[in-house]
Specification:
This protein has 368 residues and is an alpha/beta fold. 33% of the residues lie in helices and 22% in strands. The strands form three sheets. Strands 3, 5, 6, 7, 8, 15 and 16 form a seven-stranded mixed sheet that branches. It has a six-stranded parallel sheet with strand order 11-10-9-12-13-14, with helices on both faces. The chain has a three-stranded antiparallel sheet with strand order 2-1-4. It starts with 15 loop residues before the first helix and ends with a strand.
Length: 368
Amino acid sequence: MALRRVWGLTRGVETWEFLSWLRCRAFASSAAARERCEALVYHKHGEPLRVIQLETLEPPQLGDSDIRVQMLAAPINPSDMNMVQGTYPILPDLPAVGGNEGVGQVLAVGSKVTNLKPGDWVIPSDTGLGTWRIEAVGNMNGFVKVPQSIPLLCAATLGVNPCTAYRMLYDFETLKPGDSVIQNAANSGVGQAAIQIAKAMGLKTINIIRDRPDLQQLVDSLKSMGADYVITEEALRKLEMKELFKQKVPRPRLALNGVGGKSATEIMRHLKKGGTIVTYGGMAKQPVTVPVSALIFKDIKIRGFWVTQWKRHHGHDLLQEMICELCDLIQAGKLRAPVCTKVKFQDYQTALKAATTPFISSKQILIM
């Protein structure tokens, strides 16, 4: 994908509430008056703090089927970092703008655009837009409309982690209220979304996290989202787990693996016969090892999931339907944004550093 050059004005703000007020008025004023747009660009692959730099890009032309979007907020996800490092399965042509997720407000639409209008909030429907920028231009089918009645941070983090959690909970096992799900990386963006969506489905969740200095604070945070059980990796290997399944919760039919290595093997061990483990990430950078007994005697199914591939295979309409259902959960108070830290766009280096620091559960959100 060639780099789309975009333009706009950078405005510093202290809070996203004021930013939203400013953007709602700015889009109607003078698009023609904008002269530049700042973006976080990398010209080669490498460690993000070393290769990403703030650059001013030239304005693009607005095609008949295009929309011009002023970005409001964009998270820094592990997959974004992998893309900059050059280790992700999909890589844009260089130079490229970082970021694949975020929310923006439509500034202008081409003559053939009928499904969107200036003022609408939109999120990218696929990777590759490059959301770490002030403004972007893209085809109208490359965006999904979201209601402005949902919180900004929910909208900014809607397109990747909640979609991943939603599909894994619905697509691999037919679960009913009272069933249980076990997952590692429970404090990740996907993990937090899975806790809340599972709660709305009437499911019980067994959530595995790494031990850390602020363990109780994290446990309390996850339970406030609806987590039923929060267990450390070390406790997962103890005999107490057998008592948990005997007395409190049925053995899970579904395991969600975002870590790999020994952690994946351990949560697989607790699945009931015929259950499924779905791998969506590999934070440990170690292979998933499957015991022979899990295959022969327990008939465990080993699956993988990549939300980018799902979006490309299922099309815009099904994606819009899923986004609407997730927005309904948000509006009903059943799904909130992951724990986030808002960082002004110009302070991107602070956000990048925090995004690569161990045991920081807060997702870094760039506020434009």
